[in-house]
């Protein structure tokens, strides 16, 4: 009780909308849209000898930084964004960290000869693992590592 016998009550009401997790199908569609620019950049890999190195130098940053603004091209087109698991905005570091698994296989292409063998193998394993996790559990390995999730705007 406050002075004079009056009780003071403070009430707050949040006006922030609770983010709704993006469904699995929408996330897969967003990923497939993100693959389109990667396919164009991957054409550099067809250049003899140095092509795979150029492709690795272009594709690794593309996959690593695709969510840097909070939404990749696919997420932007489909109305999704990356946030922390508690719904607050994800840090730049978390947005980069969540994409390390996708970029690591492609980064191997930068290594002459050995990278040409390891890169596609690692990338295939990672993409399959990420796909299985998103379809069965609704989140990618990258989201688990970075503590992020994808929500609808």
Biggest β-sheet description: 3 strands, antiparallel
Oligomer: single chain
| C-alpha-based Rg, rounded | 21 Å
The count of domains is 1
| Total DSSP E strands | 3
Mean pLDDT: 89
- Tell me, what's the shape? elongated
Proportion of residues in extended strands? 5-15%
| Proportion of helical residues | 40-55%
Total number of helical segments? 7
Instruction: Tell me the span between the first and last alpha carbons.
Output: 43 Å
How are strands sequenced across the largest beta sheet? 1-3-2
Question: What structural category arises from helix and sheet content?
Answer: mainly alpha
Low-pLDDT parts are 4-12
| Helix-strand pattern | EHHHEHHHHE
Describe this structure in words.
- With 153 residues, the chain is mainly alpha-helical.
- It has one domain.
- The protein contains seven helices and three strands, in the order E-H-H-H-E-H-H-H-H-E.
- The protein has a three-stranded antiparallel sheet.
- The radius of gyration is 21 Å and the shape is elongated.
- Mean pLDDT is 89; it is low at 4-12.
